[in-house]
């Protein structure tokens, strides 16, 4: 990322953490039946719009949402609030899977060859 964007270390870590959380949530919650692991897939899409200076990263799974465990000793459920805190986050879920889109604005891109 540092080759293409002018980001301080904290912002770079925030971006990586938000993407990691989306991937981890898809792996843990979309495919709870371990017998289907060989068919479990996720898609990662990255798009940068130089006109608006917006980077969008989407993680899409093709599974079914696994509801969080109600046992308070096992309750974690911090991934989605963390993603919202780290980026402009939109989540769409349906019968064919879940898409988590994160956007970051004002990345101050400079030429790739630099």
TrEMBL record:
CDD domains in alphabetical order: HATPase_RsbW-like
The Histidine kinase/HSP90-like ATPase domain, residue ranges: 3-104
Pfam family, one: HATPase_c_2
GO MF annotation terms: ATP binding
Keyword match Nucleotide-binding: yes
Keywords of this entry: ATP-binding, Nucleotide-binding
Name of the featured protein: ATP-binding protein
Organism from which the protein derives: Antrihabitans stalagmiti
Taxonomic lineage from the root: Bacteria, Bacillati, Actinomycetota, Actinomycetes, Mycobacteriales
């Amino acid at each position: 990322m540092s080759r293409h964007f002018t980001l301080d270390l904290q912002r770079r870590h925030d971006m990586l953490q938000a993407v990691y959380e989306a991937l981890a949530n898809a792996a843990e919650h979309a495919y709870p039946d371990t017998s289907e692991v060989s068919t479990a897939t996720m898609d990662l899409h990255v798009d940068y719009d130089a006109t608006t200076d917006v980077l969008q990263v989407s993680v899409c799974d093709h599974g079914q949402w696994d509801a969080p465990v109600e046992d308070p000793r096992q309750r974690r459920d911090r991934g989605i609030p963390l993603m919202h805190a780290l980026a402009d986050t939109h989540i769409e879920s349906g019968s064919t899977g879940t898409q988590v889109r994160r956007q970051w604005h004002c990345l101050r891109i400079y030429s790739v060859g630099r």
